Amino acid sequence: MGQAGLVAGSGFLYLSVYILRFAFVGVCGFTAIWFSIQLILAGSILWGILALLIGTPLVIGISSYFFPVLLGITIVSAIIWGCTRLVGGEISFSNIWSSIWLSLGWLSSFSR
């Protein structure tokens, strides 16, 4: 049960991360394509074609390399959000800056 659970669990974890990476790169690629279409529709045909032919492969390549970093940041952010919710706090886009300054002030109090 122990080794089989380890093998099955690690396979499931690998498959989940692989699917997340595929979805992340796909969304980034489709966003670049959408941006180039919007440029073409706005009248910037040359910039739209350049964004489509040069920007889309560049975005796909860069997003593929940045996925592990962004996945780590996402996991840390989810842990911070969960801990904050456990103690009754609220983290949202409207009060994120006050939360950041509060956290920095709290961390700087330990350095004294």
Describe the protein.
With 112 residues, this protein is mostly helical. The chain has one domain (2-110). 87% of the residues lie in helices and 0% in strands. It is built from 3 helices and no strands. The protein has helices at 2-41, 45-86, 96-110. Helix 1 crosses helix 2. The longest helix is centred in the middle third of the chain and has 42 residues, at 45-86. The model has no long low-confidence stretch (mean pLDDT 84).
List keywords for this structure.
3 helices; flat; mainly alpha; 112 residues
Secondary-structure-based class equals mainly alpha
Helix content: over 70%
Radius of gyration over all CA atoms, rounded? 21 Å
CA-to-CA gap between the ends? 50 Å
Outline type: flat
Mean of residue pLDDT values = 84
Strand tally is 0
Describe this structure in a few short sentences.
With 112 residues, the chain is mainly alpha-helical.
